[in-house]
Amino acid sequence: MGVLAGPRSIHLTTHPSASARSMERTRFIEHAGKRILFLEYTGLGSDLAELLAEIEKTKRIIATEPPGSVLTLSDVRGSKITPGNVRAMKELVAHNEPYVRWSAVVVGLTGVYLAGFRAIQALSRRRNLLSFGDLDDAKAWLVSQP
Asked: What does the angle CA 111 – CA 109 – CA 85 come to, to the nearest 5 degrees?
């Protein structure tokens, strides 16, 4: 009898691991009939390599879309703000610019996160990028844009 066979077998369940979750952090969602590219970057930043890997995935996904067509919603609440992370996010924002029609970023609007967002926005010179305190407000604003 094998190790996992017969009446003594063990039923294994799978739980989403951090790596499985990261594979789904960048995905399209739908809200009020509109397609939104959701960048779920919550809690990222402690490991710069993990953040950079997700940024590369996001770049590959958005680059397949027509210029000026994408609504993006980024949730960065609970993410670690470091100079390296801010540079990486600035590069992502600059890369995405040709593809993005409107962007909403959920930052929670607390001191460090708000300052980080403002730095990224100022450095990128993007004017179609606004911050929000929660996902519902951000989604509602995004789908109301022309």
From this structure: 70
Give the Å distances, CA to CA, from 93 to 27, 81, 97: 16, 16, 6
Number of other CB atoms surrounding residue 12 within 10 Å: 6
Which tokens belong to 33?
């009939």
Other Cβ atoms within 10 Å of 52 Cβ, number: 16
Domain, as residue range, for 58 = 13-144
Do 134 and 106 meet the contact criterion of CB atoms below 8 Å apart?
yes
Is residue 7 assigned to a domain?
no
In this structure, is residue 5 part of a structural domain? no
pLDDT digits (tens, 9 = 90+) for 79-131: 888 889 889 988 998 999 999 999 998 876 566 666 766 776 777 666 777 77
The secondary element (H helix, E strand) that includes residue 139 is helix 135-144
Pairwise CA distance, residues 81 & 84, whole Å: 8
Domain count, the chain: 1
